[in-house]
Amino acid sequence: MSLTASSQCFTQKRTLSSLLSGRVAKKQRKEDAQQLQKAAVQLLNQHQNLPNLLLEVGNPKPCNVMDQETTGRKESVSDSPTPHIGGSLLVGELRHQAAELGVPVSVLSARMVLDRVQQLTSSTLEGVKKHALLNTTQRRQLRALLHSTQQLLSLGAFCSRLFWQEYWRDQKQVHLEVVYHLHVLNILTMESILESDGAVCSWLGAELRAVCGGTGSEEEEEEDREVRHKVLTLVVMVLVKAGFPETQDPAGQDRSLPQLCSSLLDQQLGWVLDASGRQQQDTAAELWVQLFDATLCGESVSPDALRCFFTHALTHTLTYRPRLTVSDAVSMQSGWSFSRSSHLLTALFRKLAVIFRVDELLSHLQQVLETQEVNWQHVLCFLSTLLVFNPDTQSSLQELLSKLLKSAFEGYNLESMITAFLLARQGALEGPALFPSYSHWFKMSFGGANSCHSNSKKSLVFLLKFLSDLVPFDPPQYLKVHLLHPPYVAVKHRSLLKEYVSLAKTRLADLKVSLEDMGLYEDVSGAAAPVQPQCQAGQDVEKAVSLYESTGRISATVMEASIFRRPYFLTRFLPALMTPRLLPVKADAQMRFLEALRKAEKIPPAQYSSYVQSCQRERQRQRDGGVCVQEDDDPVEVLKSQLQEFRGLVTQGDRGEVSSQLARMSHTLGVVFPGPTDTLIGQTVVKLYTDTPPPPELHVKVVNLLLRSFCQCLLDASRLHPPNRQSPWASQFVSTLLGHSQLLSALLHRLWDLLANQGPSLSAAHVLGLGAFVWHLHASQSHCPLVQLCPAVQPGPVPVSEALAPALSCATHADMLFCVRFGVAAVSYGLCRGDSQPDPGQSPPAWLCRKLLYLVPRLLPEVRDDLPARGEEAGGTGTGVKGLWPEGREQDQWSCLTDDSAPWRTSVRALWSHAAFRLVLQLPQCQVSFSEWLATELRVKRSEDALSDPERQEYHQWACMQRYLPCPVEQGGCGGNQRRLCSDILHAILDLHTCSPQSRAQGAPATGTCLPDLLCTLQEVVYEMELTGQSQGARVQAGHFLLDVLSQKCPLTPAPQPISSQLSLQQTVHAWNRVLLSLPAVMLVTVRTEAGRTTLDCQALIDHVNLYQRQVCSPAGSLPHHLTAHLLKGVLSASMRCEHPSRELNQAWSQISLLCPLFLVSAVRWWGRLRVVLECVWRGLSDGDHLPEQLQLLQTCCLWAPRLEKGVATVPTGPPLLLAATLHSAWTGRGQSIQTSVDWLCEVKERQVLVYLLYLCVTDLLTTLLHPQEVKGHQKGAELCPHILSLLVPSSDWLLLFKSPGPDQGLYQSVAMVTSDEHTRLMPLAFYSLVLQLSPEDQDRTGRTPGFLQSAVLCYVSLLNLFLDGSTPQPIADLSTDQMDLSQILGSAQRFLLRALSVSSAPFLSSSQLTQLEALCSELDPAVAGALSAHLCQDMDFL
Predict the structure, then answer these.
(1) What share of the chain is helix, strand, coil (3-state, %, to 5)?
(2) 798 - beta bridge partners?
(3) Which residues, in sequence order, are bridge partners of residue 1090?
(4) How far apart are CA 1033 and CA 1197, in angstroms?
(5) What distance, in Å, lies between the first and last C-alpha atoms of the chain?
(6) Mind spelling out the 3-state secondary structure of 1051-1088?
(7) How many CA atoms lie within 13 A of 666 on its CB side?
(8) Which of 687, 693, 690 lies closest to 590 in space, CA to CA?
(9) How far apart are CA 1093 and CA 1105, in angstroms?
C-alpha cells in the first residue's frame, strides 16, 4: 500500500477498521498476521497521530456509541482482527515514542489519555456548576476514548492510578461523568478514587449537587435525564455499599473508606435538610430525596446494608442541628403539623420509613430521644408523617406514650415526661381521625384515680411541678385543657393543685386570655387556634339547646355557669342565646329553653323584656324587606380541584398521598363548615329534620360535590379492583367528613332527600355509590354521634345509618325497586369489602337486610321457598361474615353491580345465592318479625303496588300461613298459634288507624292500603278457627282472645284521662269496630257446657261494651246501629249452639238487660230497623220459630210507648229502664209527644220509670252542652227534663241519679253504665242546669225534699272543681241565643244554694253532715262554708 493511497484514505476520514476490512476484501485471501501488522506499522509511521488513533481504535462504529454492546454482538471478533490489531498497533506506537522520549509506556499512555479527556471536556468545564453533564457528542467521543483505554489497560500499557493522580492534580478539570464512565468500564473504580485523597469527598459532594441542580429544564433531552439518573444512582449505590459494609472487622479493616462515604452521605442529607428549612421549592434537593428508594440499588446493596443506611439517615435527620430547646418546641409546636411542614421534609421521612414497621420506627425514635440531642421540629414532623401515612401508627404511639409515662413516674424522669407530652400534642394536631384530641389524652392519662400520678404524693408533686414548669411556655389552649380537666387529686392534696391552678390563671391573664371567656362546652384540644368568645358562646348555646331538647331539662353545666361563672353567663351566653330573631309561631327548642331559664329566674327581667321588644322589631323589619347574604365561592372551587386530584390518587393506589390529600380537604371543609373538628366524636346527638327546608345553598353545593366525587372514585377504583382489593380510601374519606359537625348534619339532610324523594330517578352509578357510602357510615358508627329524627320516628337517638332507614319507603312499585337496588348495592359492597378490612363492622346494616328480606320474596316468587333456614347455630353467633365469600365469587357479584346492562334481578339472585349473605340473614338483628312485616305491608298503596290483586293474595297466603305461622315466637313468628297470628294482624290494623307519631312520621296512608287483603286473611283464619273449635267442642272459656287485643291496646284507668288519651281511645275503638264488623259476631259469645247443659256466657261481651264502647258512643247513651245489629246477631247465632236456643237467649238477654244497660237502650233505639233483620235471622236458624220471649217483650214495649199517648193504660211487665227507653225513643226518635204519658205514669206511681226517663233526658241535656252541633234530635229530651223533675220533686229518688256511681245510687246503679265517664263527671252541671230552670214554687218544693241540701252542696263542690280544672264545656260563638250560658251557671248555683240554706228552717242536715260539708267548702267557697257554719251554730243553740 503506497503513501499516496494512505494519505488519500486519511484525507477522506476513513477509519482504520474500514481500511483494513476493505484491504481484506480486495485480496480475497487471508494474509499472515505478522505481515499485516508490519504493513500497518509502516503505514502509521507515514502519518502518526496517537490521540486520533486512540479514538479510531476505541470506536469502530462512531455512529452508534451508546449501543456499542449491540454493535459488538453484530460484528464478531472472529470476523475481524481489528480490535486486537488496533490495540497492538497502539501499544507498538506508544513503545516507539516512549523509547524516543525515554519514559515508561504507562506514563506516556496516561498522559495522552488525560490530554484527550481534558480536550473533550474543556468546553463544559467552564460551566460545570451550570451544565454538570457532557453533551451528546462529547459523551460519544469520551466513550470511544475510554474503550481504547480499556484495551490498553488489558494489554498492560496503561496505569489507572497514575492517570487519576494527573487528572486530580487540577481539581477544576475533573468531571463527575468522566469518573462515572471510568467506574462503569472498570478502568478506575470509585472506591479507589475515594481512598486516593480526602479532598475527593468535598469535590464529589459539590459535583452531586451540581448534577442534581441541572434538572428542571423541559428542553432537556431524554438521554441527559437518563445519564443523570444513572450517575446519581451509581454514586449512591457505591457510597451506601462502601459506607455500610455487611461485615465490619475493626481490627483487620481500614475504617477510613466507610467513614468517608458515610460522611459524604451525611453532607448531602444536610444539604437537603437545609433546603427544607427554607420553605421553598428546591428541585435539586427533591431529586436527591427520590434516590432514597430501596429498589434503586437493586442487588448491588444487601438489604441489611440498606436498612443500616436508612437507619443512619433517619437518625441523622432527627439529630440534625438541634438548635431548638424543649421550651422552644413547647411554644412553637402548633406550627409543625403535617399540613404546615415542608413537603421536602415529609417526602424524605416517607422514603426513610418505607422499609420499616411502625413499631420499629417508634422504637428507634425513642432510642434517639433517650441517647442524643434532637431537632424537635424534625422529630415531631416525622411523627406527624407517620400518623398521616400509616394507619397503624395510632395504636403504636399510644403504647409508646404509656411506656414513657410509666418510665417517667417510676424514675421521676423529666425527659420521658416532656417527650410524652410533646408526642401526644403532636398527634392531636393531626385531628381526631388520626389521633385522639389532647384533652381526651390528658383526661385519660391523668384524670382517673388509677392514673400513674395517683399512687403517691411524690408522684403528684412531680406531675404538678412539671406542669408548673411548662406554664411560661405553654400556649393558652393547653393551659385551658389543664384547667378544664385537671389531674385527679385526692382531697387531702387539693392545696397542691390550687397552686398550679393559680399559676396557670395568672399566665392566662398575662396572655390576655380570660377564663371567663372560655366556653361552657369548649373542646380545647389544642389543635386549632383559640375561638373568639362570641363564636364560642354561639356554640355553647347550640349545644345547650340540643341537650335541653333531648333531655327536657336545663343541663347542669348551664346551671353551674349561672352561679359560678356568672360574668360569662350574663355577658356572653345570654346575649348569644337572646339574639333578636323572627320568633316562630310554634315554640321551637330555643324558645322552650329560654322559657325554662326564665322560669328558673336565671334571666334578668329587664334583659328578657329587651329581648322580647327586639324580636318584635325584628319581625317588623323582616316584614318591610329581607337581607340577602352573599356566599363566597372560593372554598368550593378549591374543594372541587382537591376532589379532582383525590380521584386520580385513588386510582393510583398511593395510600400515603390519599391521606395527605384528605388532610388538605379537611382543612378546606373547615372553612366552609367552621367549628371544632372533634366535638362530635362520641358526644353529641345530631338532629335530622325530615320536613324542613334544605340547608343553605353553599352547604348543599358542597355536599353534592362530595357525594358525586365519592361515586366517581368508587367507579374508577372498581374498574381496577373489586372492593376487597382496594385501598381503604373510602373509609378514610368518610372518616374525614365525620369530623365536621355542620357537614355531617348537611350530609344527612341531603342523603335523606335523595333516598326519600329522588330515589327512583337515580342512576345505577349513583345508587351504587350511595349504597357504599351508607355502608361506610354504618361501619364508622362507633365513632359517629347518634341521630335524632324530627319529628321522631324512633323512640330515641339511633346510629347514623339506621336514621336513614325511614327514608326508604316501600309504598309503591318504584319505591320497592329502588329500595331493592340500593339495599343490594350496599350489602354486596359491604360483604365484598369484608375480606380486606381488619374490622369490617361485623355485618351489613341490619335494617337494610330486613328490607331486602321483606322485598325480595315479595317481588321474586321463586325465592320464597329458598329462604335461609332459621335457628341454625351459625346464625346466632354474631361474629360477622369475614371470609365467608367463596374464592372468586366476590368478583362475580361485584361485576353484576357495576354492569349497567345487567338487570336488577340478576344482582339480587346473585346476592341471594351466596352463603355469606344467607348467614347474615340468620343473624337475630336481621330478622323481619311478623309485626314488622304487617306494619310495612299495610303502608303499601294497592293502586301502585308491584303485585296485582291475585298475586298479592297469593303472597299474603304464603307469608302468613307458610312463613310466619310455623316460625317460633322468639324468631318473630307465631309459633304455630293461629290466635297469635290473628292478634298480630289486629294489632297492626289498630296501629294503622291510630294517630301515633310513628304512623304519622312514616307516612301511613289513610286509604288505598292493603288492609282489605289482610282483613280477608284474618277472616279466613278466624272462620277456620271457629269451624275447627265447633267441630272439636273446644270453645274459649273466658271471653275471646280478640277482645284481649283491645284491652292490651287501650288499658283503662279509673282516673280521668287527658284529651289526647280520650281521642286515642276513640280512634282505636272505631278501628276495632271496623274489624269487628268483618268477623263473625258469634265469636264474642262463649258457649259453656256444664253438667251436660250448654249455656251462653255473655260476660266478655258485656264487659267489652261497658268498658270500651260506652266511652266512645256518639251521641252518648247509644251504640251505632250497625254495631248493635252485629252484636245481637252474634247472640242469636250463639244461642243456636245450645240445646234450647230460646231459653238460653232469654236468659242471656236478661243478663244483658241487667248488667249492660247501654246495649238494652241501643236495642230499643234501633228496634224499628233491627226487628225485621233479627226475625229473618232467627227464622233461618230455628226453622221458622218466633222470636224468644225477651225479644218479643222488647217488641211489645216499643209498641206500647206510642200507644200510651192514645190512652192505652196497660203497662207491660218489663224492666223500668226498658220502659223508660221506649218512651224516650218515642219522644226523641219518632217525634211523638209523651207529656201526657208522663203525667199518667206519675199518677199510677211508676216512679222508677220516670227516674230512668229523667236520666235519659239529662243525657240529652249534657249532649247539647258538650256537642252543640248535634243538638238536633236531643233538644226535645232536654226540654222534657224540667217537667219530669217537677213531677218527681216530692220524692228523693231522683237525687240518686246525681250521686257518685256506686252503692249510694241504690236501685239506679246501672245508669252509670249507659253513658260515658265524661257525662258522669258532668252530672253536677246538669243538676244545677235543671234546678235553675224550675219555677220558684218548684224550687221551694225541691229545697224541702229530704237529702236535697246535702246533694246540692256536694254537686256545687263538684261543679266548682269542674270549673277549676277546666273540664266544663267551652262556649261556642255560633250558638243560638236560646242555649244555656254556662259562664253564669256557677254564680246562679251559688246564689240558689245560699238562698236554699238561708230559708231552710227544719234540720234537714245532721251536725256531722254540716261539719263535713263545711270542710269541703272552706277552701273552695268561703260564703257557702259560712252559711253552713251558721246552720251548724243554730243546730248547737237548739241543743
Answers:
(1) 70, 0, 30
(2) 787
(3) 1093
(4) 38
(5) 179
(6) CCCCCCCCHHHHHHHHHHHHHHHHHHHCCCHHHHCEEE
(7) 29
(8) 687
(9) 27
Estimate to the nearest angstrom the gap between the alpha carbon of 910 and the chain centroid.
29
Among 822, 798, 802, which residue's Cα sits nearest to residue 810? 822
Rounded CA separation 1393/1391 (Å): 5
Q: Which grid cell is 862?
A: 321463586
Note the pLDDT of residue 1270. Answer: 60
Predicted confidence (pLDDT) per residue in 278-291, tens digit: 767 778 888 888 88
| Grid cell in block for residue 704 | 353534592
CA torsion sign for 877, 879, 883, 889 is positive
Closest CA to 768 of 611, 896, 576, 887: 896
Evaluate whether 1127 touches 1101 at the Cβ level (below 8 Å): yes
DSSP 8-state class, residue 964: I
Match 390550687 to its residue by C-alpha cell.
498
Find the radius of gyration of the CA atoms of the chain: 51
Q: Beta strand 1086-1090 with 1093-1097: parallel, antiparallel or unpaired?
A: antiparallel
Q: List, in sequence order, the alpha helices (H) in 625-740.
A: 634-652, 655-672, 697-720, 729-738
Q: List, in sequence order, every residue forming a beta bridge with 1087; answer none if it has no partner.
A: 1096
Residue type, 900: D
User: Which residue is associated with the grid cell 244545677?
Assistant: 1328
DSSP per-residue letters across 874-914? GGG-----TT-SPTTHHHHHHHHHH-TTS-HHHHHHHHHT-
Helices marked H in 1078-1233: 1099-1104, 1110-1112, 1121-1135, 1141-1155, 1157-1165, 1167-1182, 1189-1204, 1216-1228
Whole-angstrom Cα distance, residue 785 to residue 747?
13
Q: Which three cell numbers stand for residue 1400?
A: 231552710
β-bridge mates for residue 1095, sequence order? 1088
Residues in the chain: 1439
In single-letter form, the type of residue at position 817 comes to L
pLDDT digits (tens, 9 = 90+) for 1058-1086: 777 778 888 888 888 888 888 887 877 88
| 191-236 residue pLDDT tens | 888 888 778 888 888 888 888 887 555 555 778 888 888 888 888 8
* Dihedral class, residue 321 (left if φ above 0, else alpha if ψ from -120 to 50, else beta): left
Q: 608: exposed, middle or buried (C-beta count within 10 Å: 0-12, 13-18, 19+)? A: middle
The set of cell numbers assigned to 874 is 351459625
- HSE at residue 979, side-chain half, CA atoms within 13 A, is 12
Flag whether the pTM goes above 0.90. no
Looking up cell 247509644, which residue turns up? 1118
* Rounded (5°) CA angle 1284-1290-1292: 90
User: Residue 403 corresponds to which cell in the numbers above?
Assistant: 411506656
1035, three cell numbers: 270453645
Q: Please give the Cα distance from 913 to 903 (Å, whole number).
A: 16
Question: What is the Cα–Cα distance from 245 to 305, expressed in whole angstroms?
Answer: 6
